[in-house]
Amino acid sequence: MIVIYGVKEALNPRKAKMSDLLHQCMQQVLGMPEDKRAHRFIPMDSDDFYAPGGRSAAYTVIEINMMAGRSPETIKALIKAIFRAFEDGLGLAPVDVEITVNEQPAHCWGFRGITGDEARLNYRIDV
């Protein structure tokens, strides 16, 4: 699951394109299937979203939550792919994008009535 935060005036017009770009990166780097898109957008009022210095009004925070198992190289490749995609596809400078990847063991995930370690996935985790 991916959660994207930003100031609503800057985030809302870009949501669909951001979702497409994020999913393309997930597919290319992690091998995620086409139908495995779980994006949650949190548009915020500017007085609820404080940014570090040197950021524009388009500053965007991306939290990627996924089952543990990917190599550090794969995670770094994903982060860099998102920076490139957002810069090329949306004109967002890397300084205006912050990405965190949070990994949890498969047994900490629950979906379709089972836990992640019980699931048979149609994609690999150990990439």
UniProtKB/TrEMBL annotation:
Signal peptide: none annotated. It holds the Pfam family Tautomerase_2. It comes from the Bacteria. This is Tautomerase family protein.
